[in-house]
Amino acid sequence: MTLSPPNIPKPAVVLITGAAKRLGAATARHLHACGCDIIVHYHQSQAAAEALAAELNASRPDSAITVPANLADSSELTALSEQALNWKGKLDVLINNASAFYPTPLQEATEAQWNHLLNTNIKAPFFLCQHLRPALSKSQGCIVNLVDIYSQRPLNNHPIYSISKAGMAMLTQSLALELAPDIRVNGVSPGAILWPESESATPEAKAAAHDYQQQLLRKIPLERIGTEQDIAQTIQFLAFQAPYVSGQIINIDGGRSIGI
Is 161 tagged catalytic? Predict the structure, then answer.
């Protein structure tokens, strides 16, 4: 089932962090098809970001731009915010999608890994919300944060990542209180949506990954992984079709979080 496009009388301006690939790019395409103008943030994926913006602009001129920033470096957040606001002079929706993810077993974890994961996954969204609060308040806009089902129950060997996503869940609820009534804040918590990219993996690693995927599928009541559209449509709903919803985090996980 696909949600019908929301009624957007004037193009809403949407900033999506980490929008060059995967879930971010799928969300950008979906919201653009609904009539939104898209600010495609990227860090290292310049070619993919520019290709996506070109694709969107070919469909509707002047409907997408790219803005680079290293979210782990707080000094770049001001420039990101200024460039985003200078494009159309307003902002209606902020989607905090960008995230760093890798294992950090306790005995091997470093302070640099702690700083990188926390700076990218929780510090950057917090201060980006701070920078963009006046514009979002003026537009009576909203914020949608990408959380994770591991914010509720940790992923083994990923303690720092899990901590950062638990912080993102609390950020969502805290800002929903602090920014009300002008700005709604909600979250989407994906489960198994896309398998990790593994083109360069060895045959042994691919076999092990396949075994893990099969084990994971057996834990999902719906017995399948989700799609990028599952996430994009939920973000669409929260941004444009749920005016009385704030402070909520929706699990998109096929029921896995019931007994994770």
Answer: yes
The pTM is what? 0.91
- Catalytic site residue from 42, 102, 150, 161: 161
What residue spans define the domains of the chain?
A: 13-191+226-252, 196-225
Would the CA dihedral through 250, 19, 97, 180 be positive or negative? negative
Architecture label for domain 13-191+226-252? 3-Layer(aba) Sandwich (3.40)
Helices (H), 119-251: 124-139, 159-179, 203-217, 228-240
Along the 260 residues of the chain, how does pLDDT read in single tens digits?
A: 455 555 565 789 999 999 999 999 999 999 999 999 999 999 999 999 999 999 999 999 999 999 999 999 989 999 999 999 999 999 999 999 999 999 999 999 999 999 999 999 999 999 999 999 999 999 999 999 999 988 988 989 999 999 999 999 999 999 999 999 999 999 999 987 765 555 555 676 666 666 767 777 888 888 888 899 999 999 999 999 999 999 999 999 898 888 75
- What single DSSP character describes residue 151? G
